[in-house]
Design a protein that fits this description.
mainly alpha; three-stranded antiparallel beta sheet; 3 strands; 10% strand; extended
């Protein structure tokens, strides 16, 4: 009988964790969506994401950028032309294949991404400042879990240095 009770308890714990996980996911998703809607933009989200990707990962082929951003290669070519015209990226030839263009973020593009991140962080800081001390402390206590979650989503090693297995 103890074995059956233990199995029921384990099942109840899994169900509770699943409910908590779903509620947390909905709350985080809603926060991100609201932040994206409220923060003023001077360029499309795909352009911002492309610049951020280049700033984070380094130069890439247009085909790889298109795949990463979920757009067609012709769409990415057009987007890169606009970013290049505006001075945010530079196109270079691929030393291993002269037919291929490599796109790199320019210093102006990097500065734009840094300023954007600073501005977005400031918007969140102002929002957090509106929380009660208790809620702010609870949120601060969740920082390690949020950082680990971000690392998992990026496929990066977690704080222990072990790979997450997510590609």
């Amino acid at each position: 009988m103890n074995g059956v009770r233990a199995m029921r308890d384990a099942s109840a714990q899994r169900n509770e964790r699943a409910k908590q996980g779903a509620a947390t996911a909905v709350a985080l998703h809603g926060l991100v969506i609201e932040a994206v809607r409220q923060i003023p933009r001077t360029m499309s989200l795909t352009s911002l994401s492309t610049l951020s990707t280049l700033d984070h990962t380094g130069p890439q082929r247009i085909t790889d950028l298109a795949l990463n951003q979920g757009v067609t290669q012709p769409s990415m070519t057009t987007l890169v032309k606009v970013l290049e015209r505006d001075g945010f990226v530079e196109r270079r030839g691929d030393p291993s294949d002269g037919r291929v263009a490599i796109v790199a973020v320019s210093e102006a593009g990097s500065a734009f991404v840094r300023e954007r991140r600073r501005s977005n962080a400031e918007a969140f800081t102002q929002l957090i400042d509106k929380l009660s001390d208790e809620d702010a402390a609870t949120l601060a206590a969740a920082i390690p879990a949020l950082q680990h979650l971000r690392a998992l989503s990026e496929g990066l090693p977690n704080s222990s240095g072990s790979p997450t297995g997510i590609a």
